[in-house]
Amino acid sequence: MRRSVLSIPFVAALLVSCATLPSEQVRTTALGSLQGYSTPSVDIYKGIPYAAPPVGEKRWKAPEAAQPWDGVLDATKAGLPCIQPTVSRPGIYSNPPDKVSEDCLTLNVWSPKDAADLPVFVWIHGGALRTGAGSEAMYDGRKLAKEGVVVVSINYRLGVLGYMAHPELSAESPDGVSGNYGLMDQIAALEWVRDNINAFGGDASNVTIAGESAGALSVLFLMSSPEARGLFHKAISQSGYMASQPSLKTAKNGMPVAEGVGTWLTGKLDAQDLADLRAMDGAELSKRADAAGYMPWGTIDGKYLPKQMPDIFDAGEQAAVPLLAGYNEGEIRSLRALAPAVPESADAYENMVAEKLGDLSDEWLSVYSSDDLSEAILAGPRDSLYGWTTHRMMEAQRAQGEAGYMYFWNHGYPAANAYGLHAFHASEVPYVFGSMDDTPPLWPSPDDTLAERQLNAAVMDYWVNFAKTGRPTADSQPDWPAYDGNGAYMAFISAPHPAMNLMPGMFELHEEIVCRRRQDGTQAWHWNTGIASPLLPETPCQPRSKEAAAND
Fold it and tell me: Catalytic residue numbers?
């Protein structure tokens, strides 16, 4: 059984004297006191360790509990980001940290002045499970906190250090599993919130988890994991994707054996066994694993992730919580590697669709017409990843009787449009945090106009009020309709606009494609769709009952 992570470890070098500190900046947690710093309206605490450092023999193990300390812990600086590979080609998301460390399991808290029993907003950063940090400037929580929530951002193990499965690791685990260490970290951080957030004025019974891209994938993992049940009460998924994941010991769903990937990587790194891997420098290990082509995924291990996510959601076994979820019109404009090359002609495109999708080719072409090949090529993988997932989550929560609120981000502005990046992947994030001035160096930021400030205020209001009440509302803005059988959603264009029936036929088409692949059992589902698809199984989808899905 995993031990509950209750508080902050002893860090002797960071202890400071109580006598010199303003009392309002000192908070007392279960295992000791810590000092942050203040702005006029928000108290800030950074670099709070939520688990023991996963180094040495603790590398690739579940996070362990911390030890109490005496004195006051200095919590005025962010902890180091987790070890991650260096991005070889700078782009709009590039924001490499100056330093990284395996001793990285820390979180940050923004607490309004005189906070008491306020809702808690826990942010999980994106970065494909291989890069990023909760301390990035774009995720600064002070403006959200000013609206009446306690904001928490977290680090979690990344890449090979966060997600590698290996037969030796499974053998030494009390549960017989390996992989998913980054997910275990996220669960440990939520346990810390449960046990300590009241010291910062937060209400542990009103916690919202939120994330974008791999952070939204993590939200899906947490909704799917029995180990996270009860640790949160609402969920926000911004561009989440319900892609297939590898299983621990068997090759299923077109994915390799997760333990086999670990064995393969051991050889690629010229290591003999797990002891050799643990003896390697963490940064060098991460760099070489990334160069070898290692990609981090969640692992279907029967414990942290019991089944593929669609199976869990089909069976109604996901967390029964209100959900706010959506995706962006231009997701793939900034993720061009996920799109196939544009065919040379409309005829070539139509012939390729017919070859790959067979009896579904006419339906595909009705949704992704050959009239504009460039847009069709971008829209297909966008919807197979983010669009289908969003609609599917909404349908699943509705089946549970939980409220769901869907959005479609279609907002463009001159700096982004000039580079062909209208409504690009993650472009909504600065509007959530009010951090337009704190984006990565190459990020095309919007101009400081009245319209942009009004949209920013509306988005923050909707997100904050959802965290408070489970219902997104905003001052002087239209009501956000709950998702229902007609597909109600909120379109964010130049301003919020309630709408109905987003992309008719899209969800049904991708549901049929994914269902055929799932019942065939040999094909993965992610961005491999349209002209990038393997030959689609011919047998039409045979929907399973909820009871059958639960027994898979």
Answer: 213, 329, 425
